[in-house]
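Hi support team,

I've been running sequence recovery on a batch of backbones for a student project. Most finish fine, but this one hangs at about 90% for roughly twenty minutes before it completes. I'm not sure whether the input is malformed or the queue is just slow. I've pasted the structure tokens below so you can try to reproduce it. Let me know if you need the job ID as well.

Thanks,
M.K.
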């Protein structure tokens, strides 16, 4: 259910695809280099800076207006690379699976743990590798974490 309901909720409630040609071209370029289908990029009308991605039937990256407002061009690119890495890794599938299992009665019978920290580090490493520095992903995360 999480693979269809949650992405659909954001896609239909957001309804606004990102129109920034520079960011779209950047994501298109790296999607092709990574040999993954170009994800749709949606803008969420929230001041809080957030970014996340889904890989279900159709990949999508979601970014908030707040994130686009506070990050520099290179920081935004680092975040997009990070999200593309999640799509390539199919991380969202495991994140949803582990979340749903923890909420289900089965969680009482079985211990299920998925290390999302490792996936985050791998996605960061991908952005660092492409950009040749950890500066932008670190500063983007710091800005997003420190937002009030």
């Amino acid at each position: 259910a999480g693979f269809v309901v949650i992405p659909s909720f954001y896609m239909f409630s957001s309804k606004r695809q990102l129109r920034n040609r520079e960011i779209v071209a950047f994501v298109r370029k790296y999607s092709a280099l990574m040999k993954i289908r170009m994800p749709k990029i949606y803008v969420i009308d929230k001041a809080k800076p957030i970014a996340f991605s889904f890989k279900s039937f159709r990949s999508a990256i979601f970014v908030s207006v707040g994130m686009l407002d506070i990050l520099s061009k290179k920081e935004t690119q680092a975040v997009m690379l990070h999200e593309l890495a999640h799509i390539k890794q199919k991380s969202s599938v495991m994140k949803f699976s582990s979340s749903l299992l923890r909420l289900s009665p089965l969680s009482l019978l079985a211990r299920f743990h998925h290390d999302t920290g490792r996936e985050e580090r791998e996605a960061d490493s991908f952005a660092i590798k492409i950009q040749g520095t950890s500066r932008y992903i670190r500063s983007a995360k710091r800005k997003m974490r420190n937002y009030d």
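--
Follow-up from support: It reproduced on our side and the slowdown came from queue contention, not your input. The mean pLDDT is 81. No action needed from you.
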